[in-house]
Design goal:
about 180 residues; alpha/beta; 6 helices; about 40% helix
Length: about 180
């Protein structure tokens, strides 16, 4: 263990068995732990699409920050669909809901373009780090339009899973009403 520090208790039994020692992995693991030979685990690094160290920006007027996210649900026959929802954070107004079976980055761009034609271009667009929101196509288009991106801070108390769940439940109810109205009406 001293000669091969990074091997750990999983590789050592193989080396010992090659040299003629008949030991099992559980014995080596126990001795390894008792002698204090275990190494500290490295923390996994997470890739992030944007800076996370700055303070949370609060809007003071309409069209400063829009928030967009996907909400998933399924139909009675089991087919799944996702709804892209775009909200103005200051006014708490739902600007758009786009429902699709498998939405991608092009649907995100189309929806945002439609809303921006009516409402203007926001200063910031806040979203999570989902693949549809962080693709080069979407980020490049937003940069070309002049909107900056803000991404949700992982582990932030203001944006924890419970609040996301509340928001997604509210938006799902709105989306269901919209879909039913269009279907039935």
């Amino acid at each position: 263990a001293q000669a091969r520090v990074r091997y750990g208790y999983r590789k050592l039994p193989a080396l010992l068995n090659r040299e003629g020692w008949k030991v099992g992995k559980h014995l080596v693991e126990r001795i390894y732990r008792e002698e204090g030979l275990t190494l500290r685990q490295r923390r996994k690094r997470h890739r992030r699409a944007a800076e996370h160290g700055r303070e949370r920006f609060h809007p003071t007027a309409p069209n400063q920050i829009w928030s967009m996210d996907f909400v998933a649900d399924q139909l009675a026959d089991g087919r799944r669909f996702r709804s892209l929802t775009v909200l103005d954070i200051y006014t708490r107004e739902c600007l758009a809901i786009r429902v699709a079976r498998r939405p991608g980055s092009q649907e995100v761009i189309d929806t945002l373009a439609d809303v921006m034609l009516v409402r203007g271009i926001p200063e910031y667009l806040r979203s999570d780090n989902g693949p549809e929101m962080t693709t080069k196509i979407v980020r490049g288009w937003l940069a070309g339009v002049g909107a900056k991106t803000l991404y949700i801070e992982p582990g932030s108390p203001q944006e924890n899973g419970y609040r996301e769940y509340e928001r997604s439940t509210l938006l799902l109810n709105v989306a269901r009403c919209t879909v039913l109205t269009r279907t039935l009406g």
